[in-house]
Amino acid sequence: MEEDRDILKGIFRREVRVFFLLYPAFRRFQKDRKSAKSESGKDWDYRRERNGKKAVQLFIELGPAFIKLGQILSARPDLLPKEYISSFEKLQDSVPPSPFEEVRPSLEENLGKLDEVFDNFDREAISGASLGQVYRATYKGKDVAVKVNRPDAEFIVKRDIVLLDRILRFARGRIENFLYLSINNVLRDFRKRIIEEMNYEKEASNSKRIARNISGREKIIVPRVYDELSSKQVLVMDYISGTKITDVRKLKEKNIDIQKLAYDLDISFIRMLLRDDIFHADPHPGNISVTDSGEIILYDFGMVGDLDDNTRYYLLSLYDGLTRGDIDQIVDSLIGVKALSPAANRGVIKKSVELGMAGMSGKRAEDSEIRELLEIANDVVFEFPFRLPTSLVLYMRMSSLLEGICLSLDPEFKFVKVLRKLFMEEGLLKELYEKQISMFMEDSIRSIEAGVAILPLLRRKLESEEEKPVIKKRQSVPMAIFGGFLILSGIYEYEKIPNIGYLLFGLGFLFSLYSVLRRE
Asked: Residue ranges of the Protein kinase domain (predicted)?
C-alpha cells in the first residue's frame, strides 16, 4: 500500500503534463488514420510521415515507459498508418547511463560488497537503456557483464502505467469504440511485457531456453548466466566481445563473409520462429555482435515470443500464398492467424490483396523483400481492423528488424527466396501440404457426417408422403471404392501438381457422398 501511495503521489501534475503533450499528437494521429483508411491508393504521405516523426520525438521526451510503448506500437499495422510504423520502427532504446553511485545500492543489496564478490568491477557502464544499464567485471577470473535495473525504473514505469490507464478511461466514449478497444489491448500487452522485461529472472530463463533449443544446430553464442549472482534486479552473464553486426566496414576488415553472415542470421532466426517453443523478438543491431571467427553473439532476452501450432501453420500458409500469388490462400491465412475477422467481407479483402500484389510492378514474389509482402498484409489488416494476437505482433517486429540487418549486410539479400529455400530443405512445405490435406479430409468427413445425419429426416419425410417404392440397382459399394481411389490419387498428385490433387479430391468426395446417399 505504501508503494501504491508513493506512485500516486504527484501523479496529477504528471498526468496534466502528459495529457497536454499527447492530446495534439493524438488528434493528428486520428486525422491521419482516417485519411489513410479513406484513400483508395497506397501512396506514401509525407505529412503523415512528419507527424509520425513528431510522435516518436514526443515518446522519447516522455521517458522509458513511453519508449517501450512506442516499440510495441511499431509492430501494430492494425492501429498505425504505415508512415507512423516507419518512424516508430526507428525508435531505439539507448540513453546515457545513470551515475554509478545511484545504482550501487541496488547492486550491493543483491550481490553484497562488490569488492568482495568480484575480482574487479569497472564503474563505467558499457551501455545504457531506459530500464537498465550494463557494467563489465571480473568474477573468479572470468569476464562477466553485470546488468542492473536503474534505481527509479520500476517506480517510473508503474506510475506511467497507472497514468496511461487513467487517460484511456477519460478517452472512453470520446473516441470510436474499436480504437478504444485496440488501444486498451495494446496497453494490456504492454503492461505485462514491460514488467516481465524488468524481471531479470525471467530474462535468464528465456536465454537458457533459447540456448538449449539452438545448441548444436546454429552458429550462435548465447552468454552463460551465473545463477548464483543473478536475481530479479541484477543479471550476471559471460562477457563476450564482438563487432556490432551492422558495422560492415569492420566486419570486412576481419575477413568475415558478410553475405554468408546475413544468410546464417536469417536462417537461424526463422528456424527459431518455426521450430522452437520460443524466439528472440528483438533482434535490433545493438543486440547482435559477431566474433572474429564469424560466430553470431546474441544479447538481451527480455523480449521473446512464441507461436502455437495453429498460428505457425497459418503463417507458413501465408508465406506460401504470398510467394505463389495465391489470393485465396493469403486471405484464408490472414483469417487463420486472426489478423482479420472471419466476418469481414471476403470479396473486398481479396480485391485489396490483389491491388497490393499488382503494385509490385510485375516483380516475382520470391524476388520481393519481406517488407513489401508484409506491407500488403499490413494494408489489408489496417483496412479491415481486427486486434492482432501478441505472438503475431512480436513476429512482425522480429521479421522487420531482421530483414533490415540482413539488407545492411547484403543489399542484394532476398529474404523471401531464402525463406522458400529453407521451407524446401527442411521439409516445411511438405508439412504444410500434409496439414492442408489433413484439414481437407477432416472437412470432407464432417460434410459427409452432416449429410448422413440429415438422411433419416429425409426418409421420414418421404415415408410420410407414402411414395411408391422405387427399385434401384445398388451400386453404392463400387462407387465408394472408386471415390476412395480418387481421394488416394489426390493425395499422391497433390505434392506434384496441387490443382490436379484438388480436382481428384473433389471428385472422390462427390463419389463417396453419392455412394452414402444411394446406400440410404
From this structure: 120-458
Strand partners, 64: none
Torsion of CA 65, 66, 71, 75, to 10 degrees: 120
- CB neighbours of residue 351 within 10 Å: 13
Q: Give mean pLDDT in consecutive 10-residue pieces for the chain, a chain of 520 residues.
A: 57 89 94 81 82 94 89 83 87 80 94 95 90 94 95 88 92 86 86 89 96 92 96 96 94 95 92 89 91 94 87 83 80 83 79 72 54 67 68 80 89 79 75 70 59 55 53 50 57 56 64 57
Instruction: Please state whether the predicted TM-score (pTM) of the whole model is above 0.70.
Output: yes
Please state the domain extents for the chain. 1-93+154-197, 99-150+199-239, 242-426, 476-519
CB 444 within 8 A of CB 504: no
- H helices of 359-389, in order, are 370-383
Amino acid at 214: I
Q: Which residues are catalytic?
A: 282
Assess contact for 129 and 136: CB atoms under 8 A. no
Q: Residue 287 gets which letter from DSSP?
A: G
Closest by Cα among 193, 172, 179, 168 to 22: 168
**Closest C-alpha to 256, from 438, 475, 410:** 410
**3-state SS class at 241:** coil
Q: Which fold has domain 99-150+199-239?
A: Phosphorylase Kinase; domain 1 (3.30.200)
DSSP code string of 189-208: HHHHHHHHHT-HHHHHHHHH
